[in-house]
Specification:
SIS_dom_sf, Arc Repressor Mutant, subunit A, five-stranded parallel sheet, DNA binding, globular, DNA-binding transcription factor activity, WH-like_DNA-bd_sf, alpha/beta, MurR/RpiR family transcriptional regulator
């Protein structure tokens, strides 16, 4: 972006739209850790960014307001005000994407307003998750999951269930998917694996597991490919891999919702299956036969489906 492309703060901007998310994603790998956190925060909050201030962004990310200013100028904008003005038209077009759903939602009790707001946040998180599945980064991750010989999956505490579900269902699309229980406490099965033929998927949410961070550090040192599926709170994953997929989990309920993370993992399996094509269908048939052999399932019609 050249200086000639940038209007002044007072210039009419209605016809001067930008794709800020594309700009940010293109720069992600070139940034320092603090800049990566800023970049990820802006991507995650792209629709409300025109209404943020330098201080509010700085507080949310945990950096100084001057860092925010320098980062915005480094992207090629004169100021945060310049950036926000140039975004407003694009963001305005997306307002009300889920309003038709909200209009149908009626709860006749004292919690109606709270539940409506929670639903709005939940639906918005799902919309943003589906948008992730259209990115080049997503395609890169899906390709790696389809082609790498062995996939190791790790999850901790409350996120362990998500990881186990992902590993067990991905195994129906392709072989050699292993959920790592880490019974030895050393992650030896991962550390000793062939780094050129292995990939790790790590699922975790705040508060993040110490073991997960240490494992990510070790995998980076080993140069073993890593995909991280997490929430959007600290953007810690970008320190270890560019293949980070963050879901919006704050929906104003007692616990944050993991629905968006479940959707990320489900869509990733679907993308892998599409890339594998007939191989995925054959693998599904093999798994179905094994399920029948061991009498594992009730309702075999589902396992015999043709779609």
């Amino acid at each position: 972006m050249t200086n000639g492309d940038k209007p002044t703060d007072g210039q009419e901007l209605s016809g001067d739209k930008i794709d800020l998310e594309a700009i940010l994603r293109a720069r992600m790998n070139e940034l320092s850790p603090s800049e990566q956190s800023l970049c990820a925060y802006m991507i995650d909050n792209i629709q409300i960014l025109p209404f943020e201030t330098g201080s509010s962004i700085a507080r949310a990310v945990g950096v100084s307001e001057m860092t925010v200013t320098r980062f915005v100028r480094g992207l090629g904008f004169e100021s945060l005000r310049d950036l926000k003005n140039r975004m407003r038209d694009s963001v305005a077009e997306k307002d009300g994407e889920i309003d038709d759903y909200m209009a149908r939602f009626q709860v006749r009790n004292s919690r109606q307003q709270e539940l409506q707001e929670s639903l709005r946040l939940e639906l918005d998180a799902i919309v943003k998750t589906y948008a992730l599945a259209t990115t080049d980064l997503w395609d890169e991750a899906a390709t790696a999951l389809a082609k790498t010989r062995t996939i190791y999956v790790v999850g901790f505490q409350a996120s362990k269930g998500l990881a186990m579900d992902f590993a067990s269902r991905l195994l129906w699309a392709r072989p050699n998917v292993i959920f790592v229980e880490n019974a030895t406490g050393t992650f030896g099965e991962i550390i000793a694996a062939d780094t050129k033929q292995s990939l790790v998927v790590l699922v975790d949410t705040a508060a993040y597991a110490t073991r997960g961070v240490k494992l990510a550090e070790k995998l980076k040192a080993l140069e073993m490919p890593l995909i991280i599926v997490t929430d959007k709170y600290s953007h810690w994953g970008f320190t270890y891999t560019p293949l980070v997929f963050e879901g919006h989990t704050h929906v104003k309920t007692f616990w944050d919702s993991t629905a968006s993370l479940g959707v990320i993992l489900n869509l990733m399996i679907d993308s892998v299956a599409i890339k594998l094509g007939p191989k995925a269908k054959r693998n599904f048939a093999t798994m179905s036969e094994l399920g029948t052999l061991f009498g594992e399932f009730v309702g075999g019609s589902y396992l015999r489906r043709k779609d």
